[in-house]
Task: inverse folding
């Protein structure tokens, strides 16, 4: 991977931390999350061989936090944006705390859109000048392929992330920027405890390193990467048909635009 600098959101644990640890030391890092102590520990671990690692403790549910992260990423000239931060809440919609429902939308939907829209123009320009490809990874989920009662808002936000990444990939097909919708299945992280959902209910789980490694490997090769091997096999026909529909829809929309 020839990326000079990557921004990883939600970098303090789980898949985000795996992304930060798996990127080569030649890639500088801008890492953000809510836990400053974890960010500093990660910075100490990853600052090696002259690598620059900047950390920003910020809440992406708030505009002020998003603005600070964008400023740091622009100053670092990022050419890889990993929109990893996300949260969920299991339960009956009308019984879940309203602030948590809103927070899910702010972190899972608003933050990726705002960060990507802010950073992408200069990423495109730098790629054109250098001739080096840039990349955007949007963390969706297998939950984004269907409605999930009792996990409704989370699944809806991940469906948004999936559609957003698909559309963006089509729009940037002629550019030097690759876009990937990364769709993990059940992954061994802190997510389930935070979401008020017992991970013991999952028949099997994969580790965060596997998810991050598959995401980095798939970027530039395909638009959607389902990391769960069982689901990936089961969904192969529908994913192929989805790619065909995306190609046809892109052609139609380009003609409408013209």
Result:
């Amino acid at each position: 991977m020839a990326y000079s600098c990557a921004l990883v959101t939600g970098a303090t644990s789980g898949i985000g931390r795996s992304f930060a640890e798996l990127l080569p030391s030649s890639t500088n890092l801008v890492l953000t999350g809510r836990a400053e102590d974890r960010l500093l520990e990660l910075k100490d671990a990853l600052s090696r061989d002259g690598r620059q690692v900047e950390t920003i403790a910020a809440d992406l549910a708030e505009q002020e936090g998003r603005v600070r992260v964008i400023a740091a990423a622009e100053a670092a000239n990022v050419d890889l944006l990993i929109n990893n931060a996300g949260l969920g809440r299991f339960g009956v919609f009308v019984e879940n705390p309203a602030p948590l429902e809103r927070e899910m939308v702010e972190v899972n939907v608003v933050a990726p859109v705002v960060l990507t829209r802010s950073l992408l123009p200069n990423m495109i320009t730098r790629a054109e000048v250098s001739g080096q490809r840039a990349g955007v990874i949007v963390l969706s989920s297998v939950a984004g392929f269907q409605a999930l009662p009792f996990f409704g808002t989370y699944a809806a936000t991940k469906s948004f992330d999936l559609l957003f990444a698909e559309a963006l990939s089509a729009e940037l097909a002629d550019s030097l920027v690759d876009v990937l919708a990364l769709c993990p299945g059940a992954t061994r992280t802190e997510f389930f405890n935070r979401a008020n959902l017992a991970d013991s209910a999952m028949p099997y789980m994969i580790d965060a390193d596997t998810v991050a490694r598959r995401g980095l490997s798939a970027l530039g090769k395909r638009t959607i990467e389902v990391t769960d091997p069982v689901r990936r096999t089961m969904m192969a026909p529908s994913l192929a048909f989805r790619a065909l529909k995306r190609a046809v829809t892109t052609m139609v929309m380009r003609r409408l635009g013209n």
In short: The chain has one domain: 5-232. Residues 98-130 form the longest helix (33 residues). Helices lie at 14-22, 36-46, 63-75, 98-130, 152-171, 191-194, 208-218, 229-257. The mean pLDDT is 93.
